[in-house]
Write a structure and sequence with these properties.
By secondary structure, this protein is of the alpha+beta class. 18% of the residues lie in helices and 25% in strands. The chain folds into 2 domains: 103 residues, Alpha-Beta Plaits (2-Layer Sandwich); 94 residues, 2-Layer Sandwich (Alpha-Beta Plaits). Strands 1, 2, 3, 4, 7, 8, 9, 10 and 11 form a 9-stranded mixed beta sheet that branches. Strands 5-6 form a two-stranded antiparallel ribbon. It is globular and about 45 Å long.
Length: 213
Amino acid sequence: MLLAFNKPYGVLSQFTPEPGSAFRTLADFGFPPRVYPIGRLDADSEGLLLLSDEAELNQRLLHPRHAHGREYWVQVERVPSPAALRKLELGIVIQGHQTLPCRARLLEPQPQMPPRDPPIRVRKSVPDYWVSLELVEGKNRQVRRMTAAIGHPTLRLVRVRIGEFRLDDLVAGTWRELDEAERKRVLGGSILPTAEQRQRVVQGASPGWQCPN
């Protein structure tokens, strides 16, 4: 089972609350039993979060050696210059870690995103702009630290794509199970076992499929 969830702002990517935290958890959204999040989004980030009861997907989707892409739309202060975007693409040293090369671009036209609750802070003297960052890694608060390092603090962060599967019209706070075609898009065209093949593995039979190395 593989689920896509549009995580709202102020929700932890876990089922158990943090002591003393006012943030909601995944337990508030009626997920099936025994699913867990694949990766995470910070409480102050929004967008596409995958959940599954298939342990093997965690390694396949998250390990950087698979170069599995994730796209984030990031609302930042001011309009980044081509030189600033180039710094992001080449990699930045953050807390001793050199970020991997990525793709960074201005979003044209600017997306019309649903308002956030609570709304972002607005400074009338400082314009904001949406940019796209496509990464293959996800260190703690990496996107926010990357944009801060080039002088463009993040105001809002939304993950819109994992592999070739896009968030599209999935409403914030809702989830749905992905069909077989969507599962393949999550892995960006790589082979992912069907439900029938997974059951054959459980029963000890030959699955009849191979994952690429």
